[in-house]
Amino acid sequence: MTLETTMAMTRAIAGISGAALLVATARYVAKKRLGASFPLLFLVAAASLGLLCLALFPEWAALFMPDTRMGRIRLAVAALTVFILIVTFESIRRTQLKERYALLWVLPCILVLAMTAWPGVLNWVRETFGMEYASTMAAVVFLSVMAAVFFLSKNISKNERDVSRISQRCAMLEARIRELEAAADKENAAKK
Q: Are 51 and 23 in contact (CB under 8 A)?
């Protein structure tokens, strides 16, 4: 087999796979079974369109596929970050996640996307602190997670105080209700 034959077969397989995935996704959406799988459907549709574009325009692969190892890592990090953003916005839309908690996901994702889009900023951070690319990204993610954990711990503590106060208030009201019922029972017994 020659290289040209192999490339033609690869393009044909990519085109057929992309078309099949796109048709399957369209049929699934047409049946209105979006449910909780919206982010997955979005990614499958994007992947199928990517495969179709790769089959129809193979020269586009060079435009989107970085030629360096760091470029491929940045692309993978950006893709994962976009997926997290899609899941976050879908959770907000379905009212599974409140907006104030969604900010704990959106802000770090925007920060990571900015660092992948403008590697100069990341290079400056890297050179300033003497770190490698991966450790710099890990530090950014770690700081974001720690900020989220702190914020959530603060909210949990506040909620525990509120629950304790409500429980005490409820116990006092139940005691008061028992007193009133006992007084009402005495009055009814006295009337008879």
A: no
